[in-house]
């Protein structure tokens, strides 16, 4: 089969696009993208050529831009180009030149795919085609492998990821060269030896030949790996989806995970990782989250956007912005709960054993007045209670003014409530309705230990 | 934590064995196995030392055997050794020296684990311990990776596989060296540079340092890979088990797979591979089996022990010995079926369109006499039919004698039956009860094409 036929077969087998779809081709002017243009032409696809000038190689950059413009003219297809001050963008955003170029490139392509202006030229392209080939993918796999990876890195690039389509991933570099020669194609050479290119070249020119001393078939073996690893990823994802279905309970903005069920799930490390990575946690935090399973209620691990909070028999994943409304549940048998300000220790006593103390960090509550579970939460506007010693209710906001609390102190106040009544403004004053009396039999003693 | 503590932790976390279990230690006398002995001693385990003398390195082999014997004496533990003529065994069984040594070694160890004689010395050991460490496992993973592998090769060795336990897999080579030095241990050096050792050394001394030019953390990254890949394998196996449960129907010695369901299963290639590899098929045969899904009934792919046969809407995996009893099902709408001797083409005709022919390769049957499905199978002892033109039944064995069939011809004869009556001794004679008559309306014409 010719390269053209295999190109068309690969596109149809992988459902990359249909013959009528307008395409956007990312063309640097190098041999790979020049071959991609010619194949699209020969296959009869309609396409636009887009070229990025990263302004990193002086006159060479201009030469490439002119070359690609001429190419588009020869094919009589629309041509788009954009110049970037890549170095400045990299510095401003603290990126490597390669990362900066990638980000600039793909965000411009995304812009084109959505752009209304294009439609004056031709139909809006439905996919962005890049000229990555099989040798690129072997190198990608090797680089991921030695940088450390899971299944997603191992299987390299896929023929379709979102809008980005890579219809040359089936072909070896050598085959593209032969096609270019056979079709008398002209292309430009990139003299760049920027870091990313350099490590690719190192793998290509140093590492693979070294391995071939021992396994002459190494390159073909790696090609086989890519196919197997893509299958492996599918099975991995299937099993993972089942675990997630069993474990995750979606409650508004929060996700609740039953700890007992999670602990029984195997392999725990991978399952935890796959769940938490979606909300900004890193692989390094997996161990912390696993430790959380056995720790006190109220402890949490945090990412830039989310908290994972241990709350009794549940792990709760909640957006950080919802922190204000965070509520901890305290069941009747709870002995200790950790929250933002410190920890509460709960003890049940016979009233005969109780010594009255005058310490705002200790609350003594008539247990018969309580309805479990209790809720521990930040105070909010509108909250009121019956301060101990008063027979009428008072807004907390008012109470804080009377107590001369500072603004920042006020912000930190938590309350404990039972059946929607506040029984303790934690560390400040209990509610009169919950105090112990002569007829009290069982006492709940709650002691606050502040964070030191 | 000291190496000893980590050793004990690794054993307990992975449930490798309990402190009272008697152990069999495979000891070459090299630094790794010497450290393993000392760790087992310090941890208070009871063990036997076993040493293989492969007689491959002349005087050095004897030196090693003596050294290990002395080691056992120092530890006052039972010592077992065995000498092998490895070179002869390799030649006889067409194995490489390394493969031969591995087979001899593990089959002797298995023998010891089951042996009654040992119990005179001490309790029967419950596990065989080898001294493979983390660097060995990195090399194993790298070798598999470049030879081409799936998930099972990728995750390297496991701490327990059957009776074989590898309690040093957590430790780097460097740590074993430090332990050996700190404990004043003596060991012997192996000057062998046999092929397997050579490729390991090549990876250790050439490839990893090369990669470290680019990724200085490469070794640690590979250690991380090993842990992630073991998790990945578990998820892979979970998903696979579900697919198998859905797809495989066990019928006696056969496994039946509904083709429609299989075709809808993703990823098809991996699922087919994992099903067929268990019955002796190679990865290279996966494509053939996938082709089988769309081919004619009766086609098959074969391994040393099994056949996978396409039979209408089913793939049937059957042991090759069951071949004689192979039965192909022919439904009313079947137009062509392939079997051992060739193919049958089935056509339905109005009786008015039928031309009588005198060709034993063509059967003309009164369709109203048939009950579908028909069965196509080899003839067997006890079979009888009513040969066309005779009004009484005849045993096939007798019929073949009358027809002067040779022994080998007889063995190849197949019959076609309807409702347990033979309607055609294929290629020989039809049954009188199924012939077309004046009152026949619909005719089934069956034509045999022999394998050329």
UniProtKB/TrEMBL annotation, chains A, B:
It catalyses: cytidine(34) in tRNA(Ile2) + L-lysine + ATP = lysidine(34) in tRNA(Ile2) + AMP + diphosphate + H(+). Keywords: ATP-binding, Cytoplasm, Ligase, Nucleotide-binding, tRNA processing. Its EC number is 6.3.4.19. The keyword rRNA-binding does not apply. One of its GO terms (cellular component) is cytoplasm. It is found in: Cytoplasm. It holds the Pfam family ATP_bind_3. One of its GO terms (molecular function) is tRNA(Ile)-lysidine synthase activity. ATP binds at residues 28-33. Residues 374-446 form the Lysidine-tRNA(Ile) synthetase C-terminal domain. GO terms for biological process: tRNA modification. It comes from the Bacteria. Belongs to the tRNA(Ile)-lysidine synthase family. The N-terminal region contains the highly conserved SGGXDS motif, predicted to be a P-loop motif involved in ATP binding. HAMAP family: tRNA_Ile_lys_synt (MF_01161). Ligates lysine onto the cytidine present at position 34 of the AUA codon-specific tRNA(Ile) that contains the anticodon CAU, in an ATP-dependent manner. Cytidine is converted to lysidine, thus changing the amino acid specificity of the tRNA from methionine to isoleucine. PANTHER family: TRNA(ILE)-LYSIDINE SYNTHASE-RELATED. This is tRNA(Ile)-lysidine synthase. The gene is tilS.
